[in-house]
Write a structure and sequence with these properties.
Elements (H helix, E strand, L loop, with lengths): L3 E4 L2 E4 L10 H5 L2 E9 L2 E2 L2 H14 L8 H14 L5 E8 L16 E8 L5 H6 L1 E7 L14 H12 L4 E6 L2 E5 L3 E6 L2 E4 L10 H12 L4 E3 L2 E2 L8 E6 L3 E8 L2 E2 L7 H20 L1
Parallel strand pairs: 7-8, 7-15, 11-12
Antiparallel strand pairs: 1-2, 1-6, 3-4, 3-5, 5-6, 8-9, 9-13, 10-11, 10-14, 14-15, 15-16
Bound molecules: 4'-deoxy-4'-aminopyridoxal-5'-phosphate.
């Protein structure tokens, strides 16, 4: 079903074919993207998504199509026009369209698009059941902190997970846990919540930030350090975070039960805390 589409300052619907074949996003993956969640047409954690988008655009030298306030008002306009109450907005900004050559000129006009999609977020049963993962070798480039559209390694790892009958791939680099193919990973080790530090090996997840702040706010110690894959066997709980998943327990990795094989108390508590934080966003408009 078509829904609202924003492109370069105007609104249309997703029925309209809007991109040129020589757009560098298509030809070179020369683009960054963002995904935020909305509930009752209210964006959730929009400021964090804007900050990451802005940082990514600056990192790959694409001129900003918005400032923070025009971004927020464009997204609110889009949500007013959208057909659904709850869903996700996909945003992509590419360097723009030009005759194909690797060199890009400094005065290109970026292509900025955003569209909404209905999305069914995990229900209470799914959040209690959790997900299963398989490990996959992390073969991505060394700027995973930039949310670029070059998702082929992630898509192939996800496909391997699907073929194995599980939900998500855990990307492992020389025995070190990086993150999920589309999520950040946390382990509870000796009563401490541990997750990979922010560096070039992982995406700085917006949900990750909230999970860390919520845990610390509850007096739970959080360590941002690299986890060896062997340490996962001794984790009392494992969970992943993502915009579309929230806080999601991981109950099996590579066919072996982990974190006790069921959702743990800390994960349950953080799920509730994140739901509350989202409800506060909705209430605050
Ligand atoms: N890591 C990767 C590789 C991802 O694609 C995502 C989802 N965008 C995440 C982590 C989670 O990020 P967020 O919480 O901002 O959705």
């Amino acid at each position: 079903m078509p829904d609202v589409l924003y492109i370069n300052g105007r609104f249309t619907t997703t029925d309209e074919r809007v991109l040129g074949v020589e757009d560098r996003g298509f030809l070179f993956g020369d683009a960054v993207y963002e995904v935020f969640k909305f509930l009752r047409k209210t964006p959730i954690f929009l400021a964090g998504h804007w900050r990451r988008l802005e940082r990514g655009l600056r990192a790959i030298e694409i001129p900003l199509p918005w400032d923070e306030s025009s971004f927020a008002s464009t997204m609110r306009d889009l949500l007013e026009r959208t057909a659904c109450d709850d869903g996700i907005v996909y945003i992509e900004v590419s360097r723009g369209e030009a005759a194909r050559t690797h060199f890009y000129s400094d005065d290109m006009k970026p292509t900025a698009i955003a569209y909404s999609r209905r999305y069914t977020f995990p229900d209470a049963a799914k959040k209690a059941r959790g997900i299963r993962m398989i490990t996959q070798r992390d073969v991505r480039w060394r700027h995973c902190d930039v949310k670029s559209v070059n998702l082929l390694p992630n898509a192939m790892a996800k496909k391997a997970a699907q073929r194995a009958g599980v939900d998500e791939a855990l990307l492992v680099d020389d025995g070190l846990v990086r993150e999920g193919a589309s999520s950040n990973l946390f382990a509870v080790l000796d009563g401490r919540v541990v997750t990979h530090p922010l560096d070039e090996h992982i995406l700085p997840g917006v949900t990750r930030d909230h999970a860390i702040a919520l845990a610390r706010g509850r007096g739970i110690p959080v360590d941002e350090r690299v986890i060896a894959v062997n340490e996962l066997h001794s984790a009392s709980e494992i969970f992943v975070t993502a915009t579309t998943l929230g806080v999601m327990p991981v109950v099996q990795i590579d066919g072996r039960a982990c974190g006790g094989g069921t959702r743990g108390p800390l994960t349950t508590d953080l799920q509730r805390a994140l739901d509350d934080a989202e409800s506060r966003e909705v209430a605050g408009g």
